[in-house]
């Protein structure tokens, strides 16, 4: 879904800095970090457990979509989402659409950096094919008429919405054009599940939060990552895992492999981390 002309003009004006005074009136009630994606990579899990830490606050809704489709709601509306943080100095939100290829969020990195240049960005990624399967199931459970899984590549919209979100390195470059790498923290879904304590400790350190064992354990349930946002949650129709045809798997693997290798290299991960 694109933007109407009025909203597009408003965002263009925002990128030029014309809303600086509006932003400054918000005082300290703005995020210090944003989880930019990727969809279906445990971002909901992170926004559920991070507020267990006494220094961290997550907005409600967790996905304000402000730097895009909701920019016309204004800076005061956005700031109100964080005012209940009170004495929690680390404030965040998690709009996965910011790192999507959707036209309504193309200006998100520029808009964010224009007003929040010190922002820290968190990007959670996942085996590209597993993430595609999960997002297709999620969309099929919410949207009637979603194309069949084996017909995904024939749908221009699904290629952009679902396949495009697994081109992690490509999507990340739009943020790296504005933010230095020291303000970007990438982690994998797989590490979060298999090594939750170490992975969360690194994330907390990046955010500037206490990494004491007691604080890290607050985020876990008996040392394990809580299971939230499972398939069928939130009233969505439960869609069973689709059947991968050899042709579709080969097509998607060939499309995604170069980007996946670049992303893994950026994260200093072995190229064999994801079996494509």
What's the gist of this structure?
With 276 residues, the protein is of the alpha/beta class. It is 41% helix and 9% strand. Helix 4 (75-80) links the parallel strand 2 and strand 3.
Distance between the termini: 30 Å
Give the biggest beta sheet. 5 strands, parallel
Number of strands: 5
Shape: globular
CATH architecture designation:
3-Layer(aba) Sandwich
CATH superfamily (homologous) name: P-loop containing nucleotide triphosphate hydrolases
- Mean pLDDT, to the nearest integer, reads 94
Write the topology of this structure.
Elements: H1 5-15, H2 20-24, E1 33-37, H3 43-49, E2 56-58, H4 75-80, E3 90-94, H5 108-115, E4 120-125, H6 128-142, H7 156-163, H8 168-176, E5 184-188, H9 189-194, H10 196-207, H11 213-218, H12 246-266
Parallel strand pairs: 1-3, 1-4, 2-3, 4-5
Describe the protein in words.
This protein has helices at residues 5-15, 20-24, 43-49, 75-80, 108-115, 128-142, 156-163, 168-176, 189-194, 196-207, 213-218, 246-266; strands at residues 33-37, 56-58, 90-94, 120-125, 184-188. It has one domain (5-266): P-loop containing nucleotide triphosphate hydrolases (Rossmann fold), CATH 3.40.50. The protein has a 5-stranded parallel sheet with strand order 2-3-1-4-5, with helices on both faces. With 276 residues, the chain is of the alpha/beta class. Helix content is 41%, strand content 9%.
Task: Identify the notable features of this structure and list them briefly.
single chain; 276 residues; alpha/beta; Rossmann fold; 5-stranded parallel β-sheet; 5 strands
